[in-house]
Amino acid sequence: MSRTAQAPITQADPRIPFPSTTEALVCRTNENLFVHEHGQNSPEDIRRVQRAKAACRGCPVAEGCLKWSLANPELTPTGIWAATTAKERKTLRNRLRERLGTDWVGVVAKVDRASSRRRQAQSRPAAAEAAPRAHPMFSSPARDSITPEQQRQNRLVLLTAEYQHRTPRPPSP
Length: 173
Ligand code: SF4
Hints:
Blueprint: H1 26-29, H2 43-57, H3 62-71, H4 86-100, H5 104-122, H6 125-129, H7 148-166
Helix pairs in contact: 5-7
Bound molecules: iron/sulfur cluster.
Iron/sulfur cluster is lined by residues 25-27, 34, 55-56, 59, 61-62, 65, 81-82.
């Protein structure tokens, strides 16, 4: 998947695969909307970028797309991915490196695998047959203490949410 003028010959990092979906993603049905080369800052470009970002915010795979685009800088040197420009992705990568270390991609992938295993375990038939429990928000406060992996995952989710809320809007034309 490339929306750059010159498609790089680079393999994607296998540790964070692009999320699979059967949805018709806007960036695939209207790829031109998501093209954003360096220096494209005319009022028309800025309006188009805003429309692309708005489409990403409604995308069902935005979180996975954000992780994938951050883990693959060589495949996403330009263009809008998960409501971010190339410059914004660079800032996010630097923050992740600061918080999670140089192998932040490995940390994120490990957390994702653990989450996936937990979801699979929870969806086993035995779990499905168990009596329905009250929503955790209203049930007993006695819960397992948080693990370091959960802490790292929480930091990533918070960072992503914080970033998406703080994404600066381009100046008005
Ligand atoms: S979030 Fe990613 S997959 Fe979804 S529309 Fe945006 S660029 Fe495409």
